[in-house]
């Protein structure tokens, strides 16, 4: 029987590390320790071996939790087809977060102009054209067209296991809000009953996992940050209908806890867009659970301290066996 870890409070290393009176931010302390590595861009960081060893351990825990469910494991690169992205509807809800891959497609004269712009320090990007690839905004986005291409779902529906680097243009000084980060997901497709049972089960599993890691958590109704005035209504609907829940942990502060896992019921949104049918011909419903691998890692660092070798033995045992 595993020894239970008591939820650890926010560690006070902010004060401890500092000789001057100016407390250093969490991000600065992560840089100081080399856990994250500066690139000059907010939200774009290198990760140390220690940081990655925690990410990998959490990824393994997520695998262990889902073992036995018979999920089909798929891994996509962090880019997806632009036509698929356009059809997915992401640009309706989140045009401000999307990232596209542009490439140089010019001739010799265009090349010379590009180089002279670089030389002069002026804008060189004018000759860049949108390629057929965009950056994946959530691990499940490349999956729907792939599932749709297989035809109607079997009676039991489908279950997938995904992990991908994702991109969102939301630069921030909070280390928990990165522009490029990894999301581990399980995605269920089937009848409303099937996908809701899946979401319920993962709410329990995710909550238990985080408690066993000694993290103080709260499960809260949530909404996606839909863009613009029309977006406010979408967000309110999503919340009122209980379509999204987040598992929150204080990381940057006690009053603004961070969503470390999300549980999303899309109803027939993706089923309709991608024409995914249940075995009986009805439109498929979908749901996904997303683990923010960096966010869970950061929550552990924040609560158990920045020296992972000094973490409680029971926690180390749980992560690395
Ligand atoms: P938030 O409300 O904090 O912006 P979100 O609702 O956008 O989070 P989801 O879209 O549900 O999050 O993404 C699934 C998971 O991916 C989240 O639970 C979180 O753990 C992680 N995640 C989302 N955005 C980021 C980010 N910018 N940096 C790191 N992890 C993220
Ligand atoms: Zn998803
Ligand atoms: Mg967000």
UniProtKB/TrEMBL annotation:
EC number: 6.2.1.n2
Protein name: Amino acid--[acyl-carrier-protein] ligase
Alphabetic keyword roster: Ligase
The protein's enzyme class: ligase
SUPFAM superfamilies: Class II aaRS and biotin synthetases (SSF55681)
InterPro entries hit by this protein: aa-tRNA-synth_II/BPL/LPL (IPR045864)
Record keyword Ligase present: yes
GO MF, any single term: ligase activity
CDD domains per the UniProt record, alphabetical: Gly_His_Pro_Ser_Thr_tRS_core
Keyword set includes Disulfide bond: no
């Amino acid at each position: 029987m595993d020894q239970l870890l008591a939820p650890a409070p926010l560690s006070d290393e902010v004060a401890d590390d500092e000789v001057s009176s100016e407390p250093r931010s969490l991000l600065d302390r992560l840089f100081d320790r080399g856990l994250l590595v500066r690139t000059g861009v907010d939200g774009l960081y290198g990760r140390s071996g220690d940081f990655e060893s925690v990410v990998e351990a959490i990824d393994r825990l997520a695998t262990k939790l889902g073992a036995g469910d018979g999920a089909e494991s798929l891994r996509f690169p962090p880019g997806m087809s632009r036509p698929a992205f356009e059809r997915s509807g992401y640009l309706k809800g989140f045009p401000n977060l999307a990232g596209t891959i542009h490439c140089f497609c010019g001739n010799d004269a265009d090349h010379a102009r590009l180089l002279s712009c670089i030389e002069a320090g002026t804008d060189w990007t004018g000759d860049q054209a949108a390629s057929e690839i965009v950056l994946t905004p959530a691990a499940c986005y490349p999956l729907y067209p792939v599932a749709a291409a297989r035809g109607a779902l079997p009676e039991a529906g489908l279950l997938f296991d995904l992990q991908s680097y994702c991109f969102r243009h939301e630069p921030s000084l909070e280390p928990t809000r990165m522009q490029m980060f990894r999301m581990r997901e399980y995605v269920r497709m089937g009848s409303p009953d099937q996908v809701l049972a899946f979401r319920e089960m993962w709410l329990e599993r995710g909550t238990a996992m985080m408690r066993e890691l000694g993290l103080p958590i709260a499960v809260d109704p949530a909404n996606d940050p839909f863009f613009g005035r029309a977006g406010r209504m979408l967000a309110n609907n999503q919340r009122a209908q209980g379509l999204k829940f987040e598992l929150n942990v204080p990381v940057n502060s006690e009053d603004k806890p961070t969503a470390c896992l999300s549980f999303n019921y899309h109803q027939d949104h993706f089923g309709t867009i991608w024409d995914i049918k249940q075995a009986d011909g009805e439109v498929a419903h979908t749901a996904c659970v997303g683990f923010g691998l960096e966010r869970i890692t950061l929550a552990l660092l924040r609560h158990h301290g920045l020296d992972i070798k000094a973490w409680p033995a029971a926690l180390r045992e749980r992560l690395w066996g």
